């Protein structure tokens, strides 16, 4: 992720894909009348009674929810992937080695401190 993606000026290809998928699903829910009723009511209240505007607001609000769900699902799938699990094992092994090194150095320092007294 580059700087422009981090601050939201440019969206990554993956983020664009997630957004398009979310809007497509939200529009499909609306056309099939399979809407989230609470969200539909919220959209209607923000539209001042304009049905077309309410539909547009619903799609925007629902797409926002769906983007979060998609990101969370993909993040979870990534965490469950064998490659990620292997990476975690490697990191844990490296962390253990670093801890052993630090403890060894501290032991030597303490030893020389005691011996020199």
Features:
2 domains; single chain; elongated; mainly alpha; 5 helices
Write a compact overview of the structure shown:
Helices cover 83% and strands 0% of the residues. With 117 residues, it is an all-alpha fold.
The end-to-end span amounts to: 54 Å
Into which percentage range does the β-strand content fall? under 5%
Q: Would you report the number of β strands?
A: 0
What is the helix fraction of residues, given as a range? over 70%
Reported for the largest beta sheet, the result is: none
Mean pLDDT: 88
Structurally, the number of domains stands at 2
One letter per element, helices H and strands E, the order comes to HHHHH
Query: Ranges with pLDDT <50 over ≥5 residues?
Result: none
Q: What is the multimeric organization of the chains shown?
A: single chain
Secondary structure category: mainly alpha
Shape: elongated
DSSP helical segment count: 5
The gyration radius over C-alpha positions equals 26 Å
What does this structure look like?
With 117 residues, the chain is an all-alpha fold. It has two domains: 1-80, no CATH class; 82-117. The protein is 83% helix and 0% strand. It is built from five helices and no strands. The chain has helices at 3-6, 13-31, 37-46, 51-80, 82-115. It is elongated and about 85 Å long. It starts with a helix and ends with a helix.
Blueprint of the fold:
Elements: H1 3-6, H2 13-31, H3 37-46, H4 51-80, H5 82-115
